[in-house]
Write a structure and sequence with these properties.
Strand content: under 5%
Distance between the termini: 11 Å
Helix content: 55-70%
Order of helices and strands: HHHH
Oligomer: single chain
Structural class: mainly alpha
Shape: globular
Radius of gyration: 15 Å
Length: 123
C-alpha cells in the first residue's frame, strides 16, 4: 500500500517547505522572467509549482486517511491555490487571476494522479 521509504518527519518538512515556498513566491512584487520563451509560460510555471505541492501531498498521504484520500489531497491543494491567489491580490504588483488558479489546479491534479499511481500503487 505505502512503499515510500522517506522518513515521516522529512515528508512533513518537505510539505511545509513547499507550502512556505508558494507563499514566499506569491509575496514577491513581480516574478516576470527577463524574456518570454513561449506563450503562456507563466501558466506552465504555475502548473510546475503546484505539481510540487501535489508530490508533497502524495508523500504525506497518510494524513488524509484511507477513504478518498486523493480527493482530499486535491481539495486541500485547490484551497491552497485559491488562498494563494487571494494573497496575491494584496501584494503590490501582483493580481488575482482565475486562469492562474486553473493552471495551479491542473498541475496539482496531474501530479496527484501520477505520483499516487507510482508511489502509492493506487489505480
Amino acid at each position: 500500500m505505502y512503499n515510500i521509504s522517506f522518513g515521516g518527519t522529512l515528508r512533513r518538512l518537505f510539505l511545509l517547505s513547499v507550502l512556505l515556498l508558494i507563499v514566499y513566491l506569491s509575496h514577491q512584487p513581480s516574478l516576470k522572467p527577463p524574456m518570454e520563451l513561449f506563450p503562456h509560460q507563466d501558466k506552465v510555471f504555475h502548473m510546475i509549482e503546484f505539481g510540487g505541492l501535489g508530490l508533497a501531498l502524495v508523500l504525506n498521504a497518510d494524513i488524509f486517511g484511507s477513504k478518498r484520500r486523493r480527493l482530499w489531497m486535491i481539495v486541500s491543494g485547490v484551497l491552497w491555490a485559491a488562498l494563494d491567489e487571494l494573497h496575491q491580490s494584496f501584494v503590490p504588483g501582483r493580481d488575482c487571476s482565475l486562469q492562474d488558479v486553473f493552471a495551479d489546479v491542473a498541475g496539482l491534479i496531474l501530479a496527484v494522479w501520477i505520483f499516487s499511481r507510482i508511489l502509492l500503487k493506487e489505480r
